Amino acid sequence: MKVRTGKVLPGLAGTATEVIVVRGGTPAQAATLATWFLRCPGQSPAWDSYLLSIIHLRDLPGVPPAHVRVPGATHEVMLFALDPQPDPQPGKPNSWRFLHPQNVMEQVQLPDDQAAVELLAKCTEAVLAGVLPAEPPLSGAVEPWRTALIKTSAHLRGEEHAP
Hints:
Layout: E1 3-11, E2 14-21, E3 32-39, E4 49-56, E5 75-81, E6 104-108, H1 113-128, H2 145-156
Helix pairs in contact: 1-2
């Protein structure tokens, strides 16, 4: 995978570097709409690097169909902690080794890909502000991410926020 880095955002809980996937990679990489490399010290005693990404769930030639777990979902948000060895860097995807299980993997319904990019930017800002954790308090915990994604997706679809 070829990438280049974009803007860098500072925040109270860390920094985020935009990662732009250069087109021409594998067919599956064509589904990637936006990616942020997060450096969030102190959220885990063992690592501080995370990759936050959003993909569309549309069919692509040469790629098996997406596994849609949420009826009507159009996009999927993923957050992975990265193995600290070898030192992961935003512009070097060969240095990214995803730790499992993933921190977040939630499907949402959005009107278009631009709304998906906007959703991921809002999530990135929330992590940097300390509103959303890069590292969930318990393995497999989906809150507060699920609620934030549901409410923000509704807003981006032009709907009223849920209470």
